[in-house]
Amino acid sequence: MIVLKSLSKDYGAKRKSVRALDDINLTINKGEIYGIIGHSGAGKSTLIRCINLLERPTQGTVEMDGVKLTELTVSELQEQRRKIGMIFQHFNLLTSATVFENIAFPLKLARKSSSEIEKRVSELLQLVGLADHRDKFPAQLSGGQKQRVGIARALANNPTVLLCDEATSALDPQTTNAILALLLDINQKLGLTIVLITHEMQVIRSICDRVAVIDGGRIVESGQVVDVFLNPAQPVTREFVEQVSDSAELGDVLGREKKAGTHQVMRVTFLGEITYEPILFETMRELGTSFSILQGTISRMKSTPYGQLIVKVQGNEAQVRQAVETLRIRGLDAEVI
Ligand SMILES: Nc1ncnc2c1ncn2[C@@H]1O[C@H](COP(=O)(O)OP(=O)(O)OP(=O)(O)O)[C@@H](O)[C@H]1O
Questions:
Q1: Which of 101, 141, 220, 322 could form a disulfide with 97 if both were Cys (CB 3.0 to 4.6 A apart)?
Q2: To test the ligand 1 pocket, which listed residue (10, 18, 19, 49) has its Cβ within 8 A of the most ligand atoms?
Q3: Same structural domain for residues 239 and 268?
């Protein structure tokens, strides 16, 4: 478990100092994938670098599995850092070393024997799907393959935590999905805790269990991805959700409806297996009304199916109200918008 308490970080001297993090309180549970999302300059990199103390917080504490990292001596901290792997946006590989040598590097630092290194690197190459590339140099690899080397290197000393600093931001969408799938696989196989920072809601939606939204150095919203995603409270969170839901279009649609003087537009949210059931259709039929779909998404959050439809009900106000009540009783979230 990682616990950040009252964490603040100021850069620069007193009068010109910049407050990059302001009173961050965060608990990340063992084995979960925790996402931190924010715009450029929000403080994401500073926050993730404070977790392994690559950046020293100005105030507050960082605790990992009961050990206060902020109170350790330099050598104690070095020891603790072995339990924390990290991967980076631009991979940070040694360009003049082969794939094998890059992955072996942290094992050499930990003074492992050459037979131990040979065995461990072979295991890691298998795990990340690079067994056929062990003698290549980074320049001979694609971006996705380079990140796989970065992941293998980060896992070399069997860490319990993996920090991912915009790990997929330099990759195309297809490669991003492959790397996210690998991270999820590692999380499930090894029980590793993963903390990732990103500016892409798609990354959060694909693999995270919980999310914190950071803005201006403060955490403005946090919770289970499902809850934050379906009911974003803060404007900045809504912006991120819009990245993946086309809800920008919705403004136009609602504008048109309002002009026409109708009040029959409903947002219906489905979560879990219920998403695939014909509840909406059957409810409307029973009430003697019909509907048209103005906008909709059916997708998955990690492994949870969800859907959100904006529908226009063909009926009077009482029928619309009754539709909302009935849908709620039947386990959907419905509201007139
Ligand atoms: N070494 C530094 N010295 C001074 N100011 C810094 C330093 N590093 C970051 N900052 C400032 O701290 C704030 C947070 O920066 P940070 O890099 O953590 O944000 P970020 O969310 O990771 O942004 P990006 O997505 O663009 O990398 C910004 O205002 C930035 O200018």
A1: 101
A2: 18
A3: no
